[in-house]
């Protein structure tokens, strides 16, 4: 029983700091792991655990005190716990009472480690050899480089993302400098677009991670990597607010590259606004949305009755995207229902087109509420004045001619469903006529053709489904001599419509 108790108490491991990946936010309070134990002929191997919460550096101090006549020699090894072979990543040998390890700096990747202690002596026979040891492992704070700050580019269009304007950074001696931290500052919450490309040196991998703090303990989003075979790599990450952030770049090289003295690479940052904002007709703005269920409100002022056209272009047009739109009043109260559009494949098959949403509105201030499937998109809104030449009742119907005059009409979101616009045309003898209607629609509408006796000849809603967006529809047939009327009205209270009416033969 005494031997068992002795075995249990020979090695006492005191962990001043126990880290786990889920406790990184508490890093500043726990910095040092200390192991103390006794070792002798019957207890010549010990092992402790250590967790590194981030890629970085540790400072190691190891000292021993001889307790018997033959001096001891200690070997200390660091092994990655999740490595099946438990390969050694760092080893210290020849540690004696007179030759301790003092302030040794070791680079470690984030993860769990086993630290093993093996006792020996010069004679090879461990009888009459006993020691006490102390090993401290201090996680060092990451130091910001002497580069003051990485430039952040302010852009308003996807076309401004070019292959120019990179800043060159570099790692120094691989053995001494394979981690650098660069601060950058943004003016608002949203996204940061990161573009990286190699310079002229060969390397294995450069991994970057964004942090809230310069000690690099509070990571934001996933890491991103650049390999020496890449032409360039682009990434997008979320930023919760305005302020200063830090990118920790880690150089990862194979043994063959250890003689490289400097490793340069190039980085460029773009700030992408994720907040509500005011927009001006014809001027593009870039927007970042972290998730599709989040919305951005774009304020737009209309000075006269107009058609609003909102163009939305996804940064990634290699796949079909979608976006939901809703029109709000000046108090951000919903005027229309939510409408979802999907991008169509381009005619040449090379990518997908932008999405275009239309509203017809009276003068005033509005918000266009947008939620897009793509994190990064460009939005441009246009306000185009528009007028109607239609008659507001059958008796005052606007007269149009085949291959002659044409009608222009509109229904704003504020118009009631009882409003009707009227046109008429007269045929002097039996004639083939094509009634063509080009329209910009949000919601639903109807167009009816009736004869002078009031008989309904054609009704658009019964022949063709109403389609939101920009469309051209036609009704064509032979018409007998007489006068005919065309009646247009919207079918939904919040619907809006602008259109052109033509007669052809």
From TrEMBL:
Signal peptide coordinates: 1-22
Top-level division of the source organism's lineage: Bacteria
Keywords, ordered alphabetically: Signal
Matching SUPFAM superfamilies: Collagen-binding domain (SSF89260)
Protein name listed in UniProt: Peptidase C-terminal archaeal/bacterial domain-containing protein
Organismal lineage: Bacteria, Bacillati, Bacillota, Clostridia, Lachnospirales
């Amino acid at each position: 029983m005494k031997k068992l108790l002795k075995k249990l108490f020979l090695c006492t491991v005191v962990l001043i700091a126990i880290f786990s990946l889920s406790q990184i936010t508490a890093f500043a309070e726990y910095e040092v792991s200390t192991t103390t134990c006794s070792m002798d002929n019957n207890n010549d191997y010990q092992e402790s655990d250590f967790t590194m919460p981030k890629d970085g550096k540790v400072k190691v101090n190891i000292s021993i005190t001889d307790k018997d006549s033959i001096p001891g020699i200690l070997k200390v090894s660091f092994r990655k716990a999740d490595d099946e072979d438990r390969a050694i990543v760092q080893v210290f040998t020849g540690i004696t009472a007179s030759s301790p390890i003092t302030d040794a700096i070791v680079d470690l990747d984030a993860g769990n480690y086993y630290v093993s202690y093996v006792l020996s002596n010069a004679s090879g026979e461990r009888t009459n050899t006993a020691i006490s040891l102390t090993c401290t492992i201090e996680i060092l704070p990451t130091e910001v480089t002497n580069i003051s700050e990485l430039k952040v580019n302010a852009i308003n269009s996807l076309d401004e993302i070019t292959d120019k304007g990179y800043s060159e950074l570099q790692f120094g001696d691989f053995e001494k400098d394979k981690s650098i931290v660069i601060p950058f500052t943004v003016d608002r919450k949203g996204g940061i677009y990161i573009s990286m490309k190699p310079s002229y040196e060969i390397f294995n991998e450069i991994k970057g991670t964004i942090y809230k703090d310069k000690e690099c303990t509070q990571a934001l989003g996933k890491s991103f990597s650049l390999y020496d075979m890449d032409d360039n790599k682009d990434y997008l990450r979320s930023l919760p607010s305005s302020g200063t952030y830090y990118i920790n770049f880690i150089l990862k090289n194979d043994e063959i590259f250890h003689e490289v003295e400097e490793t340069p690479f190039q980085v460029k940052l773009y700030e992408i606004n994720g907040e509500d904002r005011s927009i001006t007709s014809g001027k593009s703005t870039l927007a970042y949305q972290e998730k599709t269920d989040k919305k951005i409100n774009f304020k737009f002022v209309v000075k006269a009755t107009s058609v609003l056209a909102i163009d939305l272009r996804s940064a990634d047009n290699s796949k079909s995207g979608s976006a939901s739109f809703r029109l709000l009043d000046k108090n951000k109260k919903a005027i229309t229902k939510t409408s979802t559009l999907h991008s169509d494949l381009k005619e040449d098959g090379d990518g997908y087109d932008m999405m275009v949403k239309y509203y017809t509105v009276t003068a005033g201030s509005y918000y266009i509420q947008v939620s897009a499937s793509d994190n990064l998109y460009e939005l441009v809104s246009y306000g185009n004045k528009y007028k109607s030449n239609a008659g507001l009742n059958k008796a005052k119907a606007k007269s149009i001619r085949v291959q002659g005059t044409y009608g222009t009409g509109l229904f704003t979101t504020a118009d009631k469903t009882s409003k009707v616009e009227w046109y008429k045309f007269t045929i002097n003898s039996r004639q083939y006529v094509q009634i063509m209607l080009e329209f910009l629609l949000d919601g639903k509408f109807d167009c009816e053709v009736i004869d002078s006796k009031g008989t309904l000849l054609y009704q658009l809603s019964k022949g063709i489904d109403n389609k939101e967006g920009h469309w051209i529809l036609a009704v064509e047939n032979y018409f007998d001599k007489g006068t005919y009327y065309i009646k247009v009205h919207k079918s939904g209270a919040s619907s809006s419509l602008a259109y052109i009416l033509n007669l052809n033969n």
